[in-house]
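Running co-folding for nicotinamide-adenine-dinucleotide.
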Amino acid sequence: MPDIVIRQTAHAGRITLARPDALNAMTYDMCLQIEAALDSWAKDDDVQHVVLDAQGDKAFCAGGDIAQLYDTGMAGDFAFGQQFWADEYRLNAKIFNYPKPVISFLQGFTMGGGVGLGCHGTHRVVGETSRIAMPECGIGLIPDVGGTLILALAPGRIGEYLGTTGYRMAAADAIFAGFADLFVPQDQWFDLIQQLEDGASPDILAQAAQAPGDGLLSALQPDIDKYFAGERLGDIITTLQQVDSDFAKDTLKLLQRNSPLAMASTIEVLHRLRGPTLSMAKALDHEYRFTYRAMEHGDLLEGIRAAIIDKDRRPKWQYADLRVPAIAVSKMLMPLGKNALTLEDVRMTKTTVCFIGLGNMGAPMAANLAKAGLHVIGYDTAGTTAEGVTPAQSATDAAQGADIVLSMLPNGAILRDVAAAVLPVMKPGALFLDCSTVDVDSARAVARDAQDAGLLFVDAPVSGGIGGAAAGTLTFMAGGSAAAFETAQPLFDIMGQKAVHCGDAGAGQAAKICNNMILGATMIATCEAFALADKLGLDRQKMFDVVSTSSGYSWSMNAYCPAPNVGPQSPADNDYTPGFAAELMLKDLGLSQQAAEAVNADTPMGALALAQYRAFVEDEDGLGKDFSAMLPRFTSRGRI
Ligand code: NAD
């Protein structure tokens, strides 16, 4: 079972957390998948809004997966946690700044990392079972994932109270404190989500919302404001100790459970944030200062040990007497210099891509990667290069030290040769991403060799032609492991508008040859229809105007019209200079027939298209022309 289900409905981007047995705790992997989905939906006009929900009735998301952090931290690897937080905080900021409505349905527990996911959108829906909290001080961390922004904006000193005690807010309290917007009875959620999926406006949520009833926080606010007004944690503790009330006693009990260093730092962060310069970026920056140091210098590992490893619930905190020196807080919150949080997606800009095959498709694809800030080193036997790409002397020179080797080559034999040369020099764990159209066997053979060499492999042929390559709107059909696909995803986001993970290695090529079998046949059908229309005296523009909006429409007609000066710009307007060369279409049709033969599939139209392109390329003058040059071929002949 996947930990998360990401999909697109008619009008919504949909994310469902699917780890109910782990209270939907968010793993690193889930965080990266959500970010990739948000990136692609941001520029997809079909997606009006994003809807987040979770399976199970106990929790929307009870936090980040801290077991993962503990293992790496105990092994002395603090970098894993630091990277995880940096990536998670970037996601939190992305949700907060998202250009479309983000709607979340928060049943049961929403805590810590769950708040970062569910409480920064535009429509935060709570119900009868909702319990929202920032309990990080209980494990030696400060409230993070952008939670300090909400806490700093909460009325009076409610932020200090919630951040240090970890108080669990029911629906009314969550709305009062600014963690949620609308109370909607949970038996209505399913219907509302369906309507949102079908394109209903998020305004339906306000129409369904009801009064949440009385919360506790608003009644407690006068006391909270009085006792939590101190400059430092010590002041707050002293004030509470001087008061003889149930509230003061209960609050002290809560505070005595949590990490003093974390609580003192929480108070300090909230005080620093309040004011006209408050922003999500500033909140995350301060949180990251603490979390970056939390394993090495803070109480985090001890806090996780006591909470979920040994489960003794007796953490040995630093400053257990609750007297935290100001200097200790300052040290946790000092600026991080070159390690400071950056909310730009720097994962990829640090990446070196070796691009092999800078032809009609490869050159614009490589240029787009360079434009996005990646370091791209390119090689092509023909000596071609592309804008922003550093040329190399050989494929092996280019591949050495690269994080990703991307190839865009004419056929499977060349791919195998290139792979044999570069796989041995690639960095361990690097990704070989082949975007050429080749036979399934070659893709699988290179995948096996890559695996044997300890490398990742994805076959990801493309659709969209040179126009799509230049515009960065290609569709990728990918085969390979989930990990390899995920590694390739940021590149797909730059070069394309969509990437479909079709299955294991070779599955991308299988999808591609099926697609191109349709393309070959429709291009021939489009060309022969134009030739017939000519002979019937029908104007080509009129023919285009009708067919492009009638049932005969296709990509060949609408996006790549084979008639010169008709429809959008295409190779026909450039004397049929490829574009997509007829010999490449011949290759693809050969691949689909070879595959059909191997699996005993009946593909008569594909076979006919192959015969037509073979005659055109091998016996006539089609070699070197665009595959749409079938049109002058048909117009120059009569019925055969
Ligand atoms: P192309 O012929 O323009 O480019 C291929 C490039 O590979 C050439 O520049 C060639 O010099 C280079 N090359 C050949 N052998 C090499 C080697 N050993 N090392 C380095 N470079 C080498 O072809 P294209 O149109 O860019 O297509 C590339 C791939 O993309 C093909 O597999 C094709 O089927 C597929 N494709 C093309 C289109 C299209 O519209 N052109 C669309 C989708 C998919």
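Result summary
The chain has 29 helices and 18 strands.
The longest strand covers residues 496-503.
Job closed.
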